[in-house]
Amino acid sequence: MAPIRAADMVITDADLMGAARLFGIDEIEPIGGYESALYRSIRPQGRILRITHPSRRSTELVAAEFSYMEHLASHAVPVVAPIRSREGHLAEPMTTGADDSAVVSCMTEAPGRFRQGRTWSDAEIVHYGSILGKLHSAAGTYRPAPGLSRPGWTHPIFDIGFEARHDEDLAAVWQATRQSAQAHPAGAETLLIHQDAHLGNLFITDTGDITLFDFDDCAYGTPTHDVAIVLFYWLAGVPAVHQAEVRRFLQLFLMGYRRHGDLPEGWQEGIDVILKLRELEIYHLVSTSNEEPDEWSVNFMRDRRRRILRGAPYADVPIAELI
Length: 323
What we know:
Layout: H1 13-22, E1 27-32, E2 37-43, E3 47-52, H2 59-74, E4 92-95, E5 101-108, H3 122-139, H4 168-183, E6 191-193, E7 202-204, E8 210-212, E9 219-221, H5 223-236, H6 243-257, H7 267-287, H8 295-301, H9 304-309, H10 319-322
Antiparallel strand pairs: 1-2, 2-3, 3-5, 4-5, 6-9, 7-8
């Protein structure tokens, strides 16, 4: 069964107030959400309540996610900090009025707002890189408590269901690319990474402060893997992938990243492999979606299938030729 997302969850007012009370919240308002339903706390302010269906993430997996966030926050990584329930738990199971179940969690609200990448200054991109470097440095000391382990990025919970019946040719390319990614050093499972630290999962303030959130996909991978995902979505926001933009972003981003660590030898090739895998997965998700495509999706899909089948690198040319 496909995971149940926010739009298909049945949450009554009584369910919502019961979930809020678990975390000491008196009044909340909905703010959307795709995988999980999200609510902003009005009393007290500064909290976000998240309700997830267990078909997507179990109570144990949500607690493991929030345990990692708690570790990062305690090591001065700017992430939304988990707020424990009145019982002291990172995640609480709940039975809903629709005779279903849910997983409830809570975190601080991130300051700032979403901002398109093309409006970011050089200094802000450098800061962005330094935050991911700091995250990876802190992740190196993370030792989860028993029962709070997250899976590796190849675990079935991250499988998008790329089946041949949707597109036999692309399914074959996806399978070969996934195998290449797993065999490459960049596809190892050595460090707990964000795995989705793109612009849509952070807020930036007018003074350039950045806060990361949405660790729902955090998994064991490599720093190269994490950087590749950031680059993928940064370039997806550019109307046409320009080699100059790839150079600019990576040079500035890695300048910040290297304040806290460095990428291993061969990272350029590793980024290319992960970029291609994510390109195939996003193409599949958009092409099989029943929802009306937004502007981002329309731009991304333009000529995408032909480019993939002819083997074009996501950044037009291999990263090693640009850096």
